[in-house]
Write a structure and sequence with these properties.
single chain; about 120 residues; mainly alpha; two-stranded antiparallel ribbon; 3 helices; about 10% strand; flat
């Protein structure tokens, strides 16, 4: 004998509430903006400098300086420091060249302005 019963009722659906849409969009937008800021920070020179300092700090030895209670940090790998110093010296030389070029351009612009001013004076 087969018993046939009515199927159980479906659970009620959750109604769409437009008031919940604005906080959702705001949260997604905030997460997107935070992600962009974090990505820009982690690809910046400052993050690279912080990472380099942390990496250098891992390989440093702390030496007792004296009875004043000070400790000094001594780098263990001087070859990396010499390479880094050479790279920085190269950058400084490049910047000095750029500054000299900008100074020449500024002098030229000042001379041009002085010539214009002399021509516009009434006694010239």
């Amino acid at each position: 004998m087969l018993l046939q019963a009515t199927p159980p009722p479906l659970p009620p659906t959750i109604p769409f509430d437009p008031n919940q849409l604005l906080p959702l969009v705001g949260m997604l937008g905030g997460m997107l903006i935070a992600g962009v800021f974090l990505w820009r920070f982690f690809t910046s020179e400052m993050a690279a400098a912080i990472a380099e300092r942390i990496r250098a700090g891992i390989h440093r030895k702390r030496r007792w300086k004296g009875f004043g209670g000070e400790w000094t940090d001594m780098p263990t790998d001087a070859a990396l420091d010499a390479e880094h110093v050479a790279e920085l010296e190269h950058k400084v030389i490049e910047m000095q060249g750029q500054i000299a070029e900008m100074a020449e351009r500024l002098d030229f612009a000042e001379r041009l302005l002085a010539q214009k001013r002399e021509r516009s004076l009434p006694g010239a």
